[in-house]
Write a structure and sequence with these properties.
Elements (H helix, E strand, L loop, with lengths): L22 H9 L38 H8 L30 H14 L13 H15 L1 H7 L13 H4 L10 E7 L3 E9 L5 E10 L6 H4 L4 H19 L3 E8 L1 H5 L3 H12 L4 E2 L2 H11 L10 E7 L4 E7 L12 E7 L3 H8 L6 H16 L14 E5 L2 H11 L6 H4 L3 E3 H13 L2 H6 L11 H14 L4 E4 L4 H13 L1 H13 L1
Parallel strand pairs: 1-4, 4-5, 6-9, 9-11
Antiparallel strand pairs: 1-2, 2-3, 6-7, 7-8, 10-11
Helix pairs in contact: 8-10, 11-19, 12-18, 13-18, 14-16, 14-18
Length: 516
C-alpha cells in the first residue's frame, strides 16, 4: 500500500476493506458498541485488529484507565486514544504502510483528517485561534481610525495643508469598493521645511495610480533655521510626532516598495543627520536627504501628466518652505516617456516661504515690503544662466506651479468654501487672474487671510512670501497662462518607482492576455 502522505486514501486502521460495505457507516456502528473502537491494539502493542466484523477490545491507557467517552474520542480522530494524540509524527515515519498505527496510537487517517479541519476547529487539546479579520476589513478599520483620530484634529487645528488634512484631497479614492483594494502598494514620504507628507498608492492605467491613503501635516521643521543654522527642539518634536503617524500607516499595510526623503531643512541644518538618526530610533523610518537636482527632477516627474502633447516648452517651479526648484523643459518632436528627461536647465533657489517670511516678516506685509521680497528673489534668478525661451505660437509655452502658494491662489480664485483638490489640481489661471489674486491677498490683513478656508491660520503668514517668489518667476518668464498642480515630490517618487518596476507594462500585458 502506498504512503498515506502521497494522496492515496488509506484503509481504516488495518481493517479489511472486504469486511464492510460502507466504511463510514461501519465506523459509526462500531463506535456505538459500549466504547469499543476500530483499533483493538493496546497502546503498548503493535497488533492490528482483524476485520470489520470482529469486535474490538476497548482501549485502556498505560495506567489501566478505561477509554474516554465516545463523543470526545470521535472528535479527537476516529477512535484513536487520547494519550499522545498531539505528538508530532517524525519525518522518518512518512513512508510507513497506510494501515500501520503509530506506537502512540495515532493513525495516518486521523492525521490527515486533522490537517483537513485544522483551520476550522484547531487541533484537539489546543486553544482555538480567533479568526483573523480579512485584509479588506483591516484596511477599512484603519481608514476609519484615521478619519476619527487624525482628520478632525487637523481640521480643527488647521494642521493640514491650507487648514485641512491632505487625505480629504483623495477622499474619493479612499472610498473605493472592497474588491478594488490593491495587491501592489507603493509609498512615498516627503519631509520638507514646512510639511510632512505621505502617499500610499496602487498603480492603475499606464502612467497613473490610485491613492489608497494620504497624510499631510504642517510641522515647520525649518522654523528658526535661517538664524541659528540648526533644527530647534520644538520643530524636531513636531516632525517626529507627524512621522509616527506615517510609520503607523506604513506598518499597517503591505508595501511593495517605498522611498522616504528629506529636503532643504535637513540639507542646511548642521544637526540634520543627527535628527534623522533620532527619527530612526523613535519611529523606525529611515529617511534619505536628496540633493537639489533630484528634487527638481522629482517635481517634474510628479507633474508630467499635466503637460499636454501640444506643449513645446514649460517652466515648472516648486516653491517650498526652504528652497524653490525651477526646471526648464523643452520638448521636441520625440517625447520621452519620462518628462524629466527633457529638462535642459534647472536651478534651486535657497529661499522658500518660511525663510523669506522670517527675513522680511509675513504677518503684516505692506506693498513696499512685498516688493522688497520680490527684488530679493529676482536677484537670485538673475544668476540663473538659462537661454530665453522662444515662443512660436500660442500654446507652445506655459508655466506650471506645484506648491501651496499656487494652490492657495487657485482656491481663493474659485472662492471655495473649503479647499477641494479635485477642483484645483490642473486648473488654468490667466496672467490677469494671478495678478488679481495676489493683489487681493496683499490687501487683506493677517486675520482676514487666516479666516479664509483655503489659507487657514497656519499659512496666513507664509502665503505672501510665496506670492513674492511667484511674482519674481513670472517677471523672468512672462506667460499668458499658468497651470496649477496640487502634486509634487511624492507623486514623482511614486511615478519613478512604478516605472522602474515595470508595473504598468506588466498590467498592460495581463490585460492583453485576458483579452485573448
Amino acid at each position: 500500500m502506498e504512503d498515506p502522505e502521497g494522496g492515496v486514501k488509506p484503509q481504516f486502521d488495518g481493517a479489511s476493506a472486504a469486511g464492510r460495505k460502507d466504511g463510514k457507516k461501519s465506523r459509526r456502528r462500531k463506535g456505538k458498541r459500549g466504547g469499543q473502537t476500530r483499533s483493538a491494539a493496546h497502546p503498548a502493542s503493535h497488533e492490528l485488529s482483524g476485520n470489520a466484523g470482529q469486535p474490538a477490545r476497548p482501549i485502556e491507557d498505560t495506567a489501566g484507565h478505561p477509554a474516554r467517552k465516545r463523543k470526545r474520542r470521535r472528535r479527537g480522530g476516529h477512535g484513536v486514544s487520547q494519550e499522545g494524540s498531539l505528538r508530532p509524527q517524525p519525518m522518518e515515519q512518512t513512508g510507513v504502510a497506510a494501515n500501520a498505527v503509530r506506537s502512540d496510537g495515532d493513525s495516518a487517517s486521523s492525521r490527515r483528517n486533522r490537517r483537513k479541519h485544522r483551520g476550522k476547529r484547531g487541533l484537539q487539546g489546543r486553544p482555538l485561534t480567533s479568526a483573523k479579520p480579512s485584509h479588506i476589513q483591516l484596511q477599512k478599520n484603519r481608514i476609519e481610525e484615521t478619519a476619527s483620530a487624525v482628520v478632525p484634529r487637523e481640521v480643527q487645528n488647521g494642521a493640514g495643508r491650507k487648514g485641512r488634512p491632505e487625505g480629504n484631497a483623495h477622499q474619493g479614492d479612499r472610498q473605493a469598493p472592497e474588491h478594488a483594494w490593491p495587491e501592489e502598494l507603493y509609498a512615498a514620504l516627503d519631509l520638507g521645511t514646512n510639511n510632512c507628507r505621505l502617499l500610499i498608492a496602487q498603480p492603475t492605467r499606464p502612467g497613473q495610480f490610485r491613492v489608497v491613503d494620504a497624510f499631510s501635516r504642517i510641522v515647520r521643521l525649518g522654523e528658526g533655521l535661517a538664524a541659528s543654522g540648526r533644527l530647534s527642539d520644538e520643530a524636531m518634536e513636531r516632525a517626529i510626532e507627524a512621522l509616527r503617524v506615517c510609520a503607523s500607516k506604513l506598518r499597517n499595510r503591505e508595501i511593495r516598495r517605498m522611498r522616504l526623503i528629506a529636503t532643504e531643512a535637513c540639507r542646511q541644518a548642521v544637526n540634520g543627520e543627527e535628527f534623522l538618526g533620532r527619527v530612526v530610533a523613535e519611529t523606525g523610518l529611515e529617511l534619505e536627504i536628496i540633493d537639489r537636482e533630484t528634487e527638481a527632477r522629482l517635481a517634474v516627474s510628479g507633474c508630467s501628466s499635466l503637460v499636454g502633447r501640444e506643449t513645446r516648452s514649460v517652466v515648472l517651479f516648486d516653491i517650498g518652505g526652504g528652497s524653490s526648484e525651477i526646471a526648464v523643459i523643452r520638448i521636441g518632436d520625440n517625447r520621452f516617456s519620462r518628462l524629466a528627461n527633457h529638462i535642459t536647465h534647472w536651478t534651486s533657489l535657497p529661499v522658500g516661504v518660511v525663510t523669506l517670511s522670517e527675513r522680511h516678516g509675513g504677518r503684516d506685509v505692506t506693498p513696499e515690503l512685498f516688493e522688497g521680497m520680490v527684488r530679493e528673489v529676482e536677484g537670485m534668478l538673475g544668476r540663473f544662466d538659462c537661454p530665453e525661451i522662444e515662443i512660436a505660437q500660442t500654446g507652445d509655452f506655459h508655466l506650471i506651479g506645484t506648491s501651496g502658494t499656487v494652490t492657495t491662489l487657485a482656491g481663493v480664485h474659485l472662492d471655495l468654501p473649503r479647499y477641494d483638490r479635485r477642483k484645483v489640481d490642473g486648473i488654468w489661471l490667466s496672467d490677469d487672474e494671478v495678478s488679481a489674486m495676489q493683489a487681493k491677498l496683499l490687501s487683506w490683513d493677517f486675520d482676514s487671510r487666516a479666516a479664509n478656508p483655503c489659507i487657514g491660520p497656519d499659512r496666513a503668514d507664509l502665503v505672501l512670501a510665496g506670492c513674492a517668489i511667484l511674482e519674481a518667476i513670472r517677471r523672468r518668464w512672462p506667460s499668458p497662462r499658468m497651470r496649477v498642480a496640487d502634486r509634487g515630490l511624492r507623486e514623482g517618487l511614486l511615478t519613478d518607482m512604478m516605472a522602474d518596476d515595470g508595473v504598468w507594462r506588466r498590467n498592460r500585458n495581463r490585460r492583453g492576455q485576458r483579452a485573448k
